[in-house]
Structure formats: structure tokens, C-alpha cells
Amino acid sequence: MDQPNVPAQVPPAKKRSSCLIAGAVAGGGCLLLIIIGLVIGMMTGYSEWRAKNPAGASSSAATSSAPKETPVPVALQKYIDAMGRAYTELAGRTDFHATPCNAAAMTQATGKTSNIIMVLYGPFLKRFTQMDQAWSPDRSTWSFITDSAYRGHFEKNPKDRAAYDVEDTAKRVDDAFLPPRFVIVIWPDDEKQNTLPEMIAEKQYVGGEFRGWAVYVDQTNGSVVCMQRVVAKSSNEVWHRTRGLLKKDANTAIRDDFERSLQKAIDQTLPDGFTATTGFGSIFH
User: Fold this and answer.
1) pLDDT tens digits for 37-66?
2) Distance between CA atoms of 270 and 285, rounded to whole angstroms?
3) For residues 151 and 100, what is the distance between their CA atoms, to the nearest angstrom?
4) Of 16, 51, 138, 193, which is most buried by a Cβ count within 10 Å?
């Protein structure tokens, strides 16, 4: 026997809207459950993403914390390379011997009849062969021989300096260091044998002595142009003022005396038309 048509079962209206009613009655409890669900879902998704990308996150952090090298201008790098070649040649040389300077040819090369050239201490130039290393200020016994402005500009590796500082050094090389073309590189016979004067008792001192070479180097390519012997010694006696504006202590007096002797020895090697500029040797006797 055919069954009579029975309408489909429809849930009571209050069951369909029970969540909304309960939410209204409970003060938004259902809405709160929905929000909590969304938050949990977001947290779960974020955790999953981090688990799938640990390498990327680590690499990014390492990249951002790595120190950046400052690019060295081409002209400055060329200069550094040239002076590095000069150091390498002198450090490996065993046949130092006096060779006269051709004053006329050197003057023609500078384009000036009068030239003031810097004095540098040879071992200082070693840093120009170490561009892959950090440089430190020269605090050696003979650091005072190197022109102070030159020493300051090359105290640190250009790669480790701020870009504007490197640009300033590049400009100084072009405007001041290169125009005279030549520099005097003071190369020691033996750093351990060369000594500064030293007070050993009141009114008694051991004199200083320096033996080496004044090597004239062409800064444009690092080549050795000529060289002359340099020998400097302390005076047998040193007088100094103990009162007044020009007074100085004994240590300063014997140091100034020795530096004047070294300055004189360097000056005696100068070709005509050239003057050496140094920052040592007191002008007050």
C-alpha cells in the first residue's frame, strides 16, 4: 500500500537560531568562540610557515648583520697598488747601493721647478699589500718619520672606513700627494739596530743612531728612481733651556737633537729643486 506523502523534516526554528540566541543571551559568547577559532587558525598557519622556512629566515638574519665593505675608488686603489709594489720591491731587495738622482729629469716629470716632497717610513707601506686585512695605527718606534697627514689618511683600511672618508682620502691623494710625484721612503738597514736616544742618569744619555737609505719613489707606478745613504747620530753633548718660554726637559732635548740630525741627513740626499717636508725635529734649539 502506497505511503502517503510526508513533508521533509525541518528542524525547529529555535534550534537553527540557537547559536544566535545563545550569543545574545550570553553576551556575545558565540562570537567570542568564533574569534578564538580564527586566532588559533592564524597562529597555526604562522607556525607551519616558520617550520617550512627556517633556512630562509636564518640566511636573512645573517645577511643583514654582516658588515659591508666600502668600495674603494679606482684611482685610489691604483695608488695603493703602486705604493704596495714599492714596498714589495724594497722589502725583497738585498743590493741597496747609492744611485744618483737625475734632478733635471725629476723636475721635468713634475712640471715644476720647485717641489716639496713627503717623507715616509718604508715599513709603514706594508699595509698597502694587505688590502684583505684590517689596518691599525702605526705606533712603532719610527712612526714619526712618516708624514702625519699621510699616516692619518691611511691609518685604516679604506674598505673599513665610511664612504665620505674614503672620498676625502682619494681627493687628498689627487690634490696633494700625487702632484709632487715623488716621495722619499726611508728604509732601515736593520730596525733592531737603529735606536732612539735615552736618558740613563741625570745629565747622562745614550745617543741614538739610524742607518738606512733615502729611497726616491715615483708614486704613479711605485718604481724606485734613485737612492742615497742616510746615517744619523745624536750629538755628543746636548744643551737645553731649563727656564723661560723655550724650556724643555732633558728627554725632549735629546730627542729633538737626534731628529734634527736625521732631518739633516735626509736633506743632504735631496736633488736640486726639491725640499723635504717632515713633522719631526724641533726648530727651537
Assistant:
1) 554 555 444 443 344 444 444 444 444 555
2) 23
3) 28
4) 138
